[in-house]
Design brief:
This protein is an alpha/beta fold. The protein has helices at residues 3-12, 17-32, 35-45, 78-82, 127-134, 158-169, 194-210, 227-240, 261-267, 278-291, 307-316, 325-330, 333-345; strands at 54-56, 59-61, 65-67, 88-94, 107-110, 115-118, 142-147, 175-179, 217-221, 244-247, 271-274, 298-301, 320-323. The protein has one domain: TIM Barrel (Alpha-Beta Barrel), CATH 3.20.20.70. It has an eight-stranded parallel beta barrel, surrounded by five helices. The chain is globular. Pfam families: DHO_dh.
């Protein structure tokens, strides 16, 4: 058992999830300032080998294991997180203006099921603050920019918010992810409908092609879409010629939780992530991969809690994978374990 699971995690679990998240990031920001600390952590967790490298979207990833959006919302610790063995870091979700997000409490653990429920609501410090931090990047870690709209922006004007974020982040990120699938911003998921989504992605791609060099644009989708909606997504990706899909976001379902119903209901609304999401997220990846004849690159995310879960996502059709809840429950040793297992299998 890793030091994290043996000694650190039990302490972290004694505190409110969002409070301990803020404390942890204060530590990460402090560690990030030290090249020596980054080097020590990298020596412990990085697995480097040419066989782990992946070329996708015109980018060369040192390994296929990334950190999903949501953990480093404000681009505060991406250099340090990169030293933990991740092949890429996705920051955000970022909106044009800073916003506080939903009222507290808004982050909850279901420890026995290795799950989280969050209704954060795109809380972030705004794109300009994120830009100022990305300008201070010290390492070569690949950065994805996950972009969204402000809560008060009506859906009819959402494209403007995504364009503002795209323009501001364009010089500083390696790829973009369009987030229209969070369950925690009112009516956001309506943007996944065929007509508004086609228009949004078409406008972004038109802007992208007008830049000096086009950056990869991916779409992050919900696991709660039905087969017909997934078929629409596949058609939209082909029509707009975006570069791929991030599958999947958190789910509004509570299937797979072992807790009493009253305890689950007490937590209230929000997106469920972690182990209970694993099977559905894999199903969506497998469906998109087969239906598109493997023509759509997929970043697989959702319930990866072990090296076996990671291999499952890759076998289902994902080209890259991302961790979030698995990283919280298992620590950086999970990144190392997945990469070592991939090397063993290759």
């Amino acid at each position: 058992m890793s030091l994290y699971k043996l000694a650190i995690r039990p302490i972290l679990l004694q505190f409110d999830p969002e409070t301990i998240h803020k404390f942890t990031f204060k530590c990460f920001k402090l560690f990030q300032k030290s090249a020596l600390m980054r080097s020590i952590v990298s020596a412990q967790f990085n697995v480097k080998h040419p066989k782990l490298e992946r070329e996708l979207f015109g980018l060369k990833f040192p390994n296929p294991v990334g950190l999903a959006a949501g953990l480093d919302k404000n681009a505060e610790a991406f250099d340090f997180l990169g030293s933990m063995g991740f092949g890429f870091i996705e920051i955000g979700t970022v909106t044009p203006k800073a916003q506080a997000g939903n009222p507290l409490p808004r982050l909850f653990r279901f420890v026995n099921d290795k799950a989280l429920v969050n209704r954060m609501g795109f809380n972030n410090e705004g794109v300009e603050e994120v830009v100022s931090r990305l300008r201070k990047k010290k390492t070569q870690v690949i950065i994805g920019g996950n972009i969204g709209k402000n809560k008060l922006t009506p859906n009819e004007e959402a494209t403007s918010d995504y364009i503002k974020c795209f323009k501001a982040l364009y010089p500083l990120v390696d790829y973009f992810v369009v987030n229209v699938s969070s369950p925690n911003t009112p009516n956001l998921r309506e943007l996944q409908d065929k007509d508004p989504l086609t228009k949004l992605l078409t406008d972004l791609m038109d802007l992208n092609r007008s830049m000096v060099k086009a950056k990869p644009i991916l779409l992050k989708i919900a696991p709660d879409l039905n087969q017909s909606q997934l078929d629409d997504i596949i058609d939209i990706v082909k029509e707009t010629k975006i570069d791929g899909i991030v599958s999947t976001n958190t789910t509004i379902s509570r299937d797979g939780l072992s807790y009493p119903e009253d305890q689950i209901q007490k937590v209230g609304a929000g997106g469920l992530s972690g182990q209970p999401l694993r099977e559905r997220a894999t199903e969506v990846i497998r469906y998109i991969h087969k239906k598109s004849n493997g023509s759509i690159p997929i970043i697989g995310v959702g319930g990866i809690m072990s090296k076996e879960d990671a291999l499952e996502k890759l076998k289902a059709g994902a080209s890259l994978i991302q961790l979030y809840t698995g990283f919280i429950y298992e620590g950086p040793a999970l990144v190392k374990a997945i990469n070592k297992e991939l090397l063993r299998k290759l």
